[in-house]
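Structure ticket #2291
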Amino acid sequence: MIQIYTVNEANKRILRREMALRPNVPPSLQASLDGMFGEESTPDTAVSQIIDDVARRGDEALREWTSRLDGADLDNFVVGRGAIETAVSRIPTRLADALRLAADRIRQFHSYQPLPNWETAEMGGRLGQRVTPINRVGVYVPGGTAPLPSSLLMSVIPAQVAGVPHIVVATPPGRDGGAVPDVILAAAHITGIDTIYTLGGAQAVAALALGTDSVARVDKIVGAGNLFVTLAKKQLYGIVGIDGLYGPTETVVVADETADPAWVAADMLAQAEHDVLATAILFTPSRTLAEQVQAEIGQQMTQLSRSEITAVSLANQGGIVITADLDEACQLASDFAAEHTCIATADPDALIAKIPDAGGLFVGERSFEVLGDYVAGPSHVMPTGGTARFASPLNLADFVKISSIIRLDDDTSRELSQAAAIIAEAEQLTAHANAAYRRLE
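Resolution: structure written out below.
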């Protein structure tokens, strides 16, 4: 059962941010790591071993790790284009229509994000910036316990809008003999993707970052994944670009006495069912609402297919926090800097400015987080673990690079050379100073 906390109690428990990426390794996983990688292995050392092996043996290593970790024996990692092109016909029509609706809204939303080239003549000559798309991007689409076509749409489409010319997808083998689920292939076809690698985990990230005979090297990898995917992105950053390091998903709700307790409970349960490490927290000054939500969660959870996972999540990471007022609720929500922050109050617009740190703000009870997961428009790849304090949701800026353009006129160049030479001498860089002084001769 989800607990109700005072602010002081919550600060000591559910609101504490643990060290970034410190893995919570259950005994069963540790035993598996010890058996496969040697005693006292850690997720970090396991990922390092996989990356090193892929770097040395390429496709042979990919086949071996895919067999050992995913139970799929694959001769070819590349999904045939025919399978992608016909996948839409193998899924229900209503599902295909929903995926197309989501794709259209995601594309439309990101088309409004500005990526301007600009120049100015106000600083002497012409100064400005040039925005160009990244050439090759790899999108990781999680598989795990269920296929996630929404993650493909949410990562591929912003890259396309940004103008990335080469986009490939890596996703783990499915349960049916290693075949990628049709719903993933259908989402790829709807977006126009024709290159999919049946690869998951750290080995997929290593292949995309380093390249093999079968897998073309990319310039940047985007998309969330499990702990091993995240650690591989972290270890390979610098060799390849990454969008961010994502931890377990999280939602906080700021609500007052006007909120519908059944809706708030449903929203929290929707978040908690993702993972036993998922976080769902309600901040409210209303004890009446808190108790109603607590009761609703207990009633609704009995009807859910993933109730065991949900129960563990809510018991360990979730909670309801009684605040002094809505101002304190907003402050706590912003301090927590959650991936998703939902505002369910009589006047939700009045609270937006009071929560500056959030991956996504869901304003009003009709703008609930599940719509953001699938069809609202913004990418659902959002910063987790408190990184919303400095990071942003996946957006067009993740798929471009900016070059500064410096084209000074002669008078401005001479004027600036003296100052440049003086600073260079202060830094004891005489060759720098020499280059500047020569322009003064």
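Closing remark: Residues 250 and 279 are 4 Å apart (CA to CA).
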